[in-house]
Amino acid sequence: MTTTFLDIVNIGPDCIERFIDRVNAPEIRHLDIELAGCSNLSGEYRVGRVFPANHTLFYTLSGAGVVRTPDGDFTLSQNSLAVLKANAPFEVEIAAPRWDIIWLNLSDTPRWYAVHDAETPVVEHCDLQVVHHAMEILYQEQQATMRAAVMPLIEKHLSNTVLSSNAHRQPNRLSQLFATIDNQLQLPWTVKAMCDRVHYSAPHLHRLCLAQFGRSPVQQLIHLRMERAKKLLLNTNWPISHIGQYVGYPNVFNFSKRFSKSVGRSPSAFRKQL
Global pTM? Predict the structure, then answer.
């Protein structure tokens, strides 16, 4: 059965929502959060978007809801997080006598580009209680200094959950990129060429590489080139200039300089010693 998505807001009189916006909590602007809220829902609650401009997160504190997406229906039980991408239709609805949640609208900016990589819209067994408490403070606190004090907590826990969970669920595109690079080390790879191949922004590619490899994209490229060069130096009699060309350094001087910096000895010294 195909779901027809509509722009709908059906919030009954028994629902209580505390909105956090850029007027009463301007600090959220620094995290590219457009709007957020803490909600205690019961009775009627159904919200749908056909073409949302922002990413939307729903985190279940207690009770249950359901989210409908083009990929199917998903239950939102306690400690589950719905991560809904910008420009993709969805509908959420209460699925229990009571549903207590926090929700956030995240701008579709490089900070949150990882949301686009989610293979499934629901992350199970995550803990955003700290974010909930911090959001309650943002809503109630009148002093800007007190509101600012909780923003690092929101940034840490929200970023760790959204970015790390996506990196865990979807390492394939990044792995495939560097598998391709490893098979074509002779090409003049640039960060732009990498981004164009996987359709990532440069900041997003940088974050994913640090999370998965502990290196920047350029550092990972150099690592692959040096590892291949070491194998060729040990297992072939190829001239050093040929090995340099094979791993992407047409100029033998540049290759020797990079190899010495990365390995701690020149290519010829490495080959002789080992």
Answer: 0.63
| Cβ(68)–Cβ(91) below 8 Å | yes
| 17, 36 Cβ separation under 8 angstroms | no
What pLDDT does 25 receive?
A: 96
Contact between 139 and 18 (Cβ < 8 Å): yes
Confidence band, pLDDT 50/70/90 cuts, at residue 163: low
Q: How far apart are CA 124 and CA 76, in angstroms?
A: 9
Residue 56's beta-bridge partner residues?
A: 84, 105
Q: Which residue has the tokens 């059965």?
A: 1
pLDDT tens digit string along 103-134? 999 998 878 877 877 767 888 888 999 999 99
Q: Which residue, among 73, 83, 100, has the nearest Cα to 169 in the 3D structure? A: 83
49: pLDDT strictly greater than 60:
yes
User: How does DSSP assign 67-131, residue by residue?
Assistant: EEETTEEEEE-TT-EEEE-TTS-EEEEEEEEEEEEEEEEEPSSGGGGGGGG-SSSEE-S---HHH
Residue with tokens 């207590």: 100
Q: Per-residue DSSP letters for 174-215?
A: HHHHHHHHHH-TTS---HHHHHHHHT--HHHHHHHHHHHHSS
Q: Which domains does the chain have, with CATH numbers?
A: 8-169 (2.60.120.10), 172-273 (1.10.10.60)
Q: What are 9-25's pLDDT values in tens digits? A: 999 999 999 999 999 99
Report the C-alpha gap between 220 and 223 in whole angstroms: 5
Q: Considering Cα of 190, then 196, then 201, then 207, what sign does the dihedral take?
A: negative
Instruction: Name the burial class of residue 241, with classes exposed (0-12), middle (13-18) and buried (19+) by CB atoms within 10 angstroms of its CB.
Output: middle
